[in-house]
Amino acid sequence: MFYNYYLVIMETPLNHHKPLPETILYRSISDAAVDTATAIHGFHESVWCDRTGFEASLEVLRKVGQIDPPASYDASDVEASINSIENDMSLLFPNASPRNIRAAACMSLMALQLQTVSQNPRFHNLGYPFEAVKSYKDELVSVSISKNRPLHLNEQLAIASNIANGEAVQSLFLLMIASRQYSRWQDSPMFAGEVPNDPDEIIAEMLDFYRAIAPSSPKHEGDTTNDNAGDNYYLWTHSLGIVANSLVRSKIVSRELQSFSRLGTKLMEAFFDPTKEKDAKLAPNVSVRHSHMVAANHGNKIGQLIVAELSDRQ
């Protein structure tokens, strides 16, 4: 297991090792503001730095639903998996998460969540180990194959928790960044270690990820593809934002940041709509009309359940 890697926003890493030299951990408020402004600019300008990853993600969207169609969304299965997370909190997160994250770190985290790393040079070379991301994906795929079905949210979280040594924020960060990488392949610049760059290899790995996760949102009327992996990353992004922001030292700031995290996807969809002509350049020849709000709301619920558990321990 990867007990010697650290989440980029945690102030006290596991095992009391020194944090990585290039992180957003000790950013000042002014640096965090620049991180956020850069993310918003990149979001507005639709800057895509990693063309290989972008083209690969579009090719995956073309193929999903045409070969080996993913399982259909089942709201009762999702609800059961969330209930399982609630019942297994002490097993999933045996390690307490102290309230010691600085507001500036969470502001930078929100910037990282708003825009992929390839679109925001502020987060290049963070040094997060790709080995951890690949380990999560490989285990996810392996267990999915052994069970002959895609894995539910509680099973995904259990795998991440095992890799992240049972720490809540690290587990959720791994889920967010792994699911975003395997759904969009736009975060390669942040990783330490060897990251695939061959288009065929990238597409194959992304398709493996799609097939290994159970849908967390229905397919909408008029869709010609299925963005199951995108739903997955939105879900874990919301969970991470709520939990990390709940651990900000100032309770007042914490409460406001959690509120913003809960509304993140709603705000994003208000500004970006792939059906609009001005946004069509992002996804030529692909219908990506797919609201992530259902998945985001599931993520909010999971995040709030974890916050309640962590609060009980403090």
Across the major sheet, the strand order is: 1-2
Distance between the termini: 27 Å
Shape: globular
Number of distinct helices: 13
Mean pLDDT: 76
* Count of discrete domains: 1
- Strand content is under 5%
Protein structure class: mainly alpha
Poorly predicted tracts of residues: 1-22, 274-287
Q: Tell me the radius of gyration.
A: 18 Å
**What's the total count of β strands?**
2
Strand/helix succession: HHHHHEHHHEHHHHH
Helical fraction? 55-70%
* Largest sheet data: 2 strands, parallel
Question: What would your notes on this structure say?
Answer:
The structure is a single chain. The chain has 314 residues and is mainly alpha-helical. It has 13 helices and two strands. Strands 1-2 form a two-stranded parallel ribbon. The longest helix has 21 residues, at 293-313.
What would you say about this model in short?
The chain has 314 residues and is mostly helical. The chain contains 13 helices and 2 strands, in the order αααααβαααβααααα. The longest helix is centred in the C-terminal third of the chain and has 21 residues, at 293-313.
Structure keywords:
314 residues, mainly alpha, two-stranded parallel sheet, 2 strands, 1% strand, globular
Write the layout of secondary structure elements.
Layout: H1 29-45, H2 51-63, H3 75-87, H4 89-92, H5 103-114, E1 128-129, H6 130-147, H7 153-163, H8 168-184, E2 191-192, H9 199-212, H10 228-246, H11 251-262, H12 264-271, H13 293-313
Parallel strand pairs: 1-2
Helix pairs in contact: 1-5, 2-9, 3-7, 3-13, 5-10, 5-11, 6-7, 6-8, 6-9, 7-8, 8-9, 8-10, 10-11, 10-13
